Amino acid sequence: MKSFQAAMSSILLLTASVLANAQAAAPSAVVVHPANQSRNLLNTEYLAAAQAGRRIVAVGEHGTVALSDDSGKTWHQAHSVPTSAELTDVYFVDANNGWAVGHWGTILKTTDGGNNWTSLRSDTQVDQPLFSVRFLNSNDGFAVGLWSLMLKTNDGGATWNTVHLPVPEGAKRADRNLFSIFSASGEPLFITAERGLIYRSNDNGTTWDPIASGYSGSLWCGTVLANGTILVGGLRGSVYRSLDKGATWSRIDSGTTSSITSLVQLPNHVVIGTALDGIVITSEDGGSTFKMRQDKDRQAYTSAVSLKNGRQLLVGSHGLQVFN
């Protein structure tokens, strides 16, 4: 696997080296170039993927954006991406409109399903990565990242304002890294963070409350299931579950000590989780219990997308792979 700094600089493979690098101001002469066309699109390292209508969009190293219109059978690269910065997350509100975030505080937008992207924001003075992006509709959205960086827009990303989160109990300031922002229709918004912290908003992001999960390590990902159950996952195979909209949390045995990188509910209500070391966990009872499998190559998985006929696309250090 390539070094984290070179290819996996993201929430999902957070290491001391990237934090040390991010804390150093970048030279003023840094120039962000457009993404190059990849010579090996399938084996490029990807950090996230999302559905844009029937299309799948995956983002990753060097500003690479890969597109598939046939459930992952074939892929082609986006026509125009204005940055070669590492892209860490992508989110679509419909088949056309989507946003991607990444290093150098990068925020991109597409209005044609990912074929072409425009730059909405970047800060080349300091590499303060954004790790996750979420939109409630075509106008209202959030991006979160390093050192409690949280940005909010009410105009589709044309302008962004900094949101100052409340200080967690026992802390002197709100300086925890924010890893993943997620919600479900009609549900509160959640953000997973360091030291087992989960932020929750019941008013569409106007105010936020810090909630302790009972875990002391980083929580990297989360999802809200169709029945309202909330699952979060993170370091060392940690999975926590809430049945009361995030008020209280209980630890669930994930069956692995590999760090959990994504949690997704499939159309058949099976929950699938990806992890480092080629680990995939599945639950058929709403996250109460999990079964684990490990792939032979043991490459890091960073995200999963549900495809047709019960298949899943797994992305990560290995590139793009479709599994039953």
Low-confidence stretches: 1-27
Return the string of H and E elements: HHEEEEEEEEEEEEEEEEEEEEEEEEEEE
Number of beta strands: 27
For the record, the count of structural domains works out to 1
Mean pLDDT, all residues = 90
What does this structure look like?
- This protein is mainly β.
- The chain has a single domain (4-21, 44-323), classed as YVTN repeat-like/Quinoprotein amine dehydrogenase (Methylamine Dehydrogenase, Chain H).
- 3% of the residues lie in helices and 40% in strands.
- It contains two helices and 27 strands.
- The strands form seven sheets. A four-stranded antiparallel sheet has the order 1-2-3-4, with no helix packed on it. A four-stranded antiparallel sheet has the order 5-6-7-8, with no helix packed on it. It has a four-stranded antiparallel sheet with strand order 9-10-11-12, with no helix packed on it.
- Strand 26 and strand 27 form a beta hairpin.
- It is globular and about 45 Å long.
Secondary-structure blueprint:
Elements: H1 4-7, H2 16-22, E1 46-52, E2 55-60, E3 65-68, E4 76-77, E5 87-92, E6 98-102, E7 107-110, E8 118-121, E9 130-135, E10 141-145, E11 150-153, E12 161-162, E13 178-182, E14 189-193, E15 197-201, E16 209-212, E17 219-224, E18 230-234, E19 239-242, E20 250-252, E21 260-265, E22 271-275, E23 279-283, E24 291-294, E25 301-306, E26 312-316, E27 319-323
Antiparallel strand pairs: 1-2, 2-3, 3-4, 5-6, 6-7, 7-8, 9-10, 10-11, 11-12, 13-14, 14-15, 15-16, 17-18, 18-19, 19-20, 21-22, 22-23, 23-24, 25-26, 26-27
